[in-house]
Model the fold of this input.
Amino acid sequence: EYVPWIWNKLFHGIQNTIYRKLYFNLVKQTSFMKNLFIIIITSLFLVNCNNPNPMIKQWSDKNSEYGGVPAFDKMSPKLVKEAILKGMELSLEDIDKIANNLDAPTFENTIEEMERSGKLLSNVYPYYGILSSNMSSPEFREIQSELAPKLSEYSTNINQNEKLFERVSAIYNSSKSKPLEDDQQRVLDLTYKSFAMNGADLNNDKKKRYAEINLELSKLYNDFSNNVLHDEENYVTYLDESQLDGLSDGFIKSAKKIAQDKGFEDKYAITNTRSSMDPFLTYSTNRSLREVVWKNYYSRGDNGDEFDNNEIIAEILRLRKERVGLLGHENYAQWRLQDRMAKNPENAMALMEAVWPAAIARVDEEVTDMQKVANKLTNSKITIEPWDYRFYAEKVRKLKYDLNSDEVKQYLQLDKLTDAMFYVAGELFNYKFIALEKGRIPVFHEDVNVWEVKNKSSEEHIGLWYLDPYARQGKRSGAWATTYRSHTTMDGKTNVLASNNSNFVKPAPGEALLVSWDDATTFFHEFGHALHFFASNVKYPTLNSGVRDYTEFQSQLLERWLSTDRVINQFLVHNQTGKPMPKELVAKIKKASTFNQGFETTEYLASAIMDMKFHLADPTNIDVDKFEKETLADLKMPSELPMRHRTPHFGHVFSGEGYATAYYGYMWADVLTADASEAFAEAPGGFYDKDVAKKLVDYLFSPRNSIDPEEAYRLFRGRDAKIE
Done:
């Protein structure tokens, strides 16, 4: 009499589909002894069935310490793959339940339930993101290639669920005559807009083609990223001791350690990443080696081999245009910018074209200055090439402003910069950061450290901040911020788990990590994103989403605090003597603050304009390499410098759609940044004025996407931003 009961208990305990099939085959046995024997054997299997995969465990738990944290220490590509598949399966079950609800659609039974759906998948995405961005491997890249189309199909199954869209539409149409509460209306509007922009209104034939295009694009995005990562990992320049002239001791020690880790005891490695390339091009006196390193870096994805990205980009452009054409749009840019601050590509282009002439004119001035220095140093007239720009710009900086970047670096220690960011967060947001002991929280690499974030006054727990600072094999280049869990209050308050990720070259043991002023600025920038996450005060998860040409504003604004007197005087101290940065050096830095802006603005703007031009062009028979060359020629792009991101490795735009036709957003945000900075500069307390800081948090950080960005800015400033 116990056999059926035990079988039933076993069945409900088995989540793995393979074991369930095995179970059904075994249960057909009728012999009591056979059943008893099978029960015993199956019980042993349950060790693997009930706890087969720690990635499937829901780690978000309000009753656990810190609200639960990801089990990064138990992560593996195979386990993450299994968890992603299970997460999609359960999420679609949630969606089907909502779509097939027989009750009349309401905000509560449809939109709120959509906000709650897919909890397991939300828990698994941090693992997937880490393995993709921070800890990639050949094994995971194969899995990524396998999962990319499945994730695309998953999104399509939601976006094209007719019953679900009918319910959303009914609530949306009803709200026109009976508006909901502000935050509910914002969630509803964003949800409806997302469905509409992703083809929910199309007929069946167009929906089918829309889904096919998304599937093809998902594979292309994955291939693009893997090709860039391949070239970053496999084009390493090895130096011997005679080729180190001009390089700092710290850089040399780091290069030595990297080479040793790669099995070259007597060599020095220059990796194919910006953090390694940039200082080498700035200080190495070996011009021929500078050319090698420069070409390695700027030819990523453009080497005419199996990892070349040019045809992939052409196909991406063709598919994007076809897809938005199904929705009635002339081009991808028109479709993408409809829900951005710029509203349309014409507005974005107008801003960039207004700045471009001044930028290239400044480059001409900078090159003239560099040419004079180069002629003196070489006793011959050389032509300034792109691999010379950083080197001679540094010479001019020294000559014009008596400012040596290597001298400045001695006061820019990563640990002290971290303390400086914490100080700013304390003054503006009333936060304090408490370092957690190693081993207290699971991390995915020994280099990752974790801090608890609390309110200074109330001791209220805000969240955890993870920092992964160093470059490594399998980590994508650049710097970025991300969240593992966002703040919401829909079902009780959740804390925030946020991370910052950089690619600093790891110093040799016992050495301080010294960074450039530009790298320190980027460090502050990315921390601005983290503060935006921590400051969130929204009820619904959807409201944590961002408007691309607005979300860079908050982080760009935080850069301004690096050069405030309080930060400089307290935290920019010499790495050996511990003495504060001399006032004379501070004055030189501030005097030279607009130095090399021709280079920085032009290399950025060229990429932003190219992004837009590609998506406004007819891609039918486009030759990507030719289009890039001809567009730059039409723009009169200075030959002495490249775009910041050449098209074949422009991951912002072609490894996904986050920044596609949106790279202009940094300049759009610059207008807001400059205007908001003036609000602090004009206040009695300057950049630490408490009243302005409160408005900053209340209107620009905490609302996230619960308020239209233009309205939020007006609440902060009392008017629109001015371009002047």
About this structure: The mean pLDDT is 93. Residues 345-378 form the longest helix (34 residues). The CA atoms of residues 28 and 35 lie 9 Å apart. The two ends are 84 Å apart (CA to CA).
